[in-house]
Amino acid sequence: MTGLALISAILGRKLSGECAVLKFHIQPDSEIPASTQLYDQLWFAIASRQFPPGYRLPSTRQLAMQTGLHRNTVSKVYRQLEDAGVVEAQPGSGIYVRAQSTVESSRPWLGLWDQFPKARELVENSLDELLRQGASLNQARELFFAEIDWRLRCSARVLVTVPKQDLGAGELMVRELEAALHIPVQLVPLEDLDVVLSQARSGTVVTSRYFLAEAEAVAGPKSVRVIPVDIYDYGRELELLKELPNGTCLGMVSLSSGILRAAEVIAYSLRGDGIVLMTAQAEDAYKLNAVVRGSQQIVVFDQASLPAVKQAIATVREDLIRPPQLIVCDNYIGAKSINLLKRELGLED
What is the model's pTM? Predict the structure, then answer.
């Protein structure tokens, strides 16, 4: 399961700032197990804050009635979410979304006095010396901050981490972050994160909320901070999918194989055989050309795939009766998360 594989899984929208009733769809003819389909959809609802921290999930009976799955299957999915640290069971009450620590509320320096017993004495002596030399407390603070900020800027690295099974998802995040932050961003498979951080522990790890627990388990012991990002909810694309006329040939292109797998599941659960769906990863020129040739009406793709899509259209232009309508998705990483990263990295204008 990949974080980016969960797009489009939510079939409802937030209304007036409150959680709308979400309808989960299971495609019985899909090669993807029903339990995996439900797990992905629930996790997306949580990660995209459609189910916010503290939200009580539907009971196993309610979800079984809605999806047609056996209650034991729903219970299994809830246990998997609980094992992943996403939800928690409260006996006699229900299953609730766990509150995830965020950069706004976390205080990474708590406990450092115990970890470094001599640190308090060193800090106090340095501060006393500055005061004896005539510096004010505000001036001393500025001197400390200036030195710390300078060292952070010299050693700062931003690492994006996702599982190896969908590195295309990480590449999509890297491109968006580099465009927004104007700094180099390194892609590190989650499986290799421990080794990379052991070699150079400075920096900031960025990941989807889907993988927050796994990333923190690796980075926490090394005192490396992890910042989770919220993802785009793909509501506009879901509405488009629902409104397409029967018989539409729809193409989908992405850097992420996970996005495309989820798109197939959701598209067929919503429309069945009402549309023809073709998908391709941006770097697969053969499949991409096939999508452009076959999708005579609409091609939906992420922004990073735009150059590849345009190149494919140019390559097969002579075979096209008319070029397809191109629809570019909004950025995968939400604007709020981008602004948070800028603030935390000291990159605000």
Answer: 0.56
